[in-house]
Amino acid sequence: MTLTTFKSPSLENIRQAAKTLFAQASDTSCRYSRQLSEIAGATVILKYENLQFTGSFKERGALVKLLSLTTAQRKQGIIAMSAGNHAQAVAYQARRLGIPVVIVMPCFTPHVKVERTRAFGAEVIFHGETLDDAIILGTQLAQERNLTIVHPYDDEQIIAGQGTIALEMLEMYPDLEVLLVSVGGGGLIAGNAIAAKSLQPQIKIVGVQTKRFPSMLKALQGESIVCGRSTIAEGIAVKTPGKLTLPIIRELVDEILLVEEDEIEEAVRLLLEIEKTLVEGAGAVGLAALLKYRERFAERKVGIILSGGNIDMPILAEIVQRSMVRSGRLVRLDVEIRDVPGVLADIARYIGETGANIVEVHHQREFTCLPLQSADVEFVLMTRGLAHLEQIMEALTKAGYKTRLLSSCGVNGDRLSTLS
Prior knowledge:
The protein has helices spanning 11-21, 34-40, 58-67, 71-76, 85-97, 111-119, 131-145, 156-162, 164-172, 187-199, 215-221, 245-252, 261-274, 281-292, 294-297, 313-326, 343-353, 386-398, 413-417; strands spanning 30-33, 43-48, 78-81, 101-105, 123-126, 148-150, 178-182, 204-210, 255-259, 301-306, 330-338, 357-364, 374-382, 402-405. By secondary structure, it is an alpha/beta fold. The longest helix is centred in the first third of the chain and has 15 residues, at 131-145.
């Protein structure tokens, strides 16, 4: 089955794409979240695109695009440039359709995305630090090898395929008032803005970018684009907005919000802990924005697209650990002691009596300003939270030990600092 070629995505094009996708890509679940709604003070509806077979919404646009290729184009092969999710989707669908595929990826693409792309039979080439770098090389290779480019966002079929998400969401929840969508090059938000605004003109479409890569926002504002070097949301780390997507976004998107790295981390953690679903940084920015700007969305019905779930386990482990630090469940305490036998055991006993678990101990005599026969001991403790931490510090203080909290940064930093 092939799609009729169209020049500009419309609601009818998106509906045609939905027919193409039927039974070939997952109609992912779309559910109300009671706990997140209580936390945010809004009615929160989550669209689980992280549960697509390749772990992201990219399967939609990839399949629609590949089915639009001619027989000659399929035989010659295709090339895609991607920070990971588009790569996996294109590689998977290309294997299903028997199309040779080359993928150009940034050098620091998460390992899980690289290996899954290779597992689908793609030739993987690494180039540069960002998607923009990969696009430059990919365009060159396409000319040299006579390959058809499957662009990650600047393509009519890609945009139409991504827009099918809004069709599914509004079919289940036609009274949605806001749709929060992550923004990189703009393919996802452009397609869904077309679909949502066509079906529900009053709906607010809000894009979300990481503060380190605010390219679309800056382009809309007519300002120079300055980006950081890295972000946990590498899937939307795009420096150059799409030529096709930018005018669509300018016309149909109501605003674009920016979120910080620690806010994205917390959103990933909340989705894992509350919803029991694994979402990558780029997929969690919508929730991060909802929580950061909650007064804008209070008492409104808000849809959030969880766009992807492909995250490296070491990164996830670090997010969990850092979240524990911010919540006071993993802390570092510095305790000043007399450097004589039995004191360390005495402190460990006091800590143990509070029910805390000692994870690490670092004993320091030389690199300190304390008098001779004194020492600093740094304890890394696992606690039940801030109230438990207060109990531990009170117990050590009553026992005569001068204690200082070292892990005082993060979400609860103001409160933690008052304890030291």
